[in-house]
Each structure stands twice: as structure tokens, then as C-alpha cells.
Amino acid sequence: MGLAVRAATLDDHGSAMFLLDGAMLDADAEAVRRRIDAGSVFVAVAGGDPDGRVVGVCVLDGREIEQIAVRRERRGRGVGTALVEAVDSRVDGELTAEFRESVRPFYDSLGFEVREAETEGRFRGVLR
């Protein structure tokens, strides 16, 4: 099954919120809607068809990954990697992220330089 990554549209808002909520991320629906309008939300869709089922979402704040989530049954299959690679190719400069220790292996595997963040128990990664 192929995969396509594209900028989210307002039609993707419900799917994006479903994935973000399912990943227990603190996502404000109106803020995500504004980010979609600004072109700062990307979705991975199944089947390589841009109109396919949304299986992953990445929300940016400038050059920082604010939130990323993948449908549970698609985790470990390259969806998150495809999202980060697509987002990285679209931003100028370094891509950054702040995250919990539990997802550090994901960021390590993508080549992020990781160090402790100011917030206790969190890490900050930079992809150069």
C-alpha cells in the first residue's frame, strides 16, 4: 500500500483531530483549523491517492513540529518518517521538535540531534 503526503485541507480537519486526540496530544480544534488555513498542517494518506484515507498528520509552528500522530494500526510502517521527510523538504532552515522520552527513538532514527529541553522530562531535537 502506497503513501502520499500533502498539505491538509479543511476537509481533513476532522481526520486530523481524530488522530491528534487518539495520540492524546493537546490539540485545540480551532488552532489546528487556523494552521490548515496557513498551510502548516500536512497529512499522510493511504494508497498513494491524495484523496485516500488520512493515516498520519503533522502540525507545524514555523519550522517546529508541534504535533505528529499516526493511526495506531499504521505505526511502525514509515508513516511518521514520510511525514517528517516531506515537512523537512518544505521548510527553510532547521526542522525542530520538542518531545517526550518515549518517542525519542523515532527522532533519533531520523537523524535529529537530541538534547534535554528546558521542560523537565522532555527533549529537543534539531534536524540539520
From TrEMBL:
Q: Which UniProt keywords apply?
A: Transferase
Coiled-coil portions? none
Q: Which GO terms describe its molecular function?
A: acyltransferase activity, transferring groups other than amino-acyl groups
Checking InterPro entries in the record gives: Acyl_CoA_acyltransferase, GNAT_dom
Domain (N-acetyltransferase) ranges: 3-128
SUPFAM superfamilies the record matches: Acyl-CoA N-acyltransferases (Nat)
Stated name of the protein: Acetyltransferase (GNAT) domain-containing protein
